[in-house]
Amino acid sequence: MGKFKLALKNKKVKKWIIITLVVIFLLISFDMRLKTVYYKLDSEKINSPVTIALITDLHSDWYGKNQKTLVEAIDEAKPDIVLLGGDIFDDEKSYKNTETFLREIAVKYDCYYVTGNHEYWGKDIDNILSIVESYGITILSGDCEVVLINGQVINICGVDDVDVDTYVSGSKSTETQIKELGEKVNFNNYTILLSHRPEIIDTYKKYDFDLVLCGHAHGGQWRIPGILNGLYSPHQGIFPDYAGGRYDYASGTMIVSRGLARESTPAPRIFNRPELVIIELE
What we know:
The protein is of the alpha/beta class. 29% of the residues lie in helices and 23% in strands.
């Protein structure tokens, strides 16, 4: 009888161990806490450190009252400039959280913005651009601003999302915008291109941009760290090549943010925490 009770007790202990491990696994795999990811890049064109915050794919999601969680993460990184890489708004959600976020950061930092596909899908692009401008944020639409940061002359270039010529009559295509920038920009300065989509990397490679910053891929949605960088990404499909991370090539580097979307995603993120990207140029 004693052996039976001991066996029963051990069985219950094993059951609770398994349940505990399953719960821990689920908590880790579905972890939606914001994380900050740092990248360091060296360049002969940079003599003093420059810190850049990259924000993509917010999709008007909520990060606490007054977007406190996200804003404080940015403040902690102490960026010299904030770049907004598209899908900051969402075509199916209220703009409230996005406007709160823009209001909070625009008074602290010089901000530059490019469109993503979701800004066009709602067919409200003129209103969206007016909102962005109302906070004093610079919109880059095939444009390039020459800025002075910590004594460094840097080109901040940006292009509209690929969907621009589908939704905006008479607009220049993204590829045309990139081509025109590539022909007129002074590449003796460190040059950054802000563009929503990573899958058109072959177009970026035609020109001498030192750094290309993108989003859109949402980290491939489901990941297995160290094994699978992403399961699926829009416009890249299954096992995307550019789901998120750093991609070096002969003439430059592309960094793809895994983005900030969480409650707005159609499928839950797995092992794929929303991220704020900080780039440190040295």
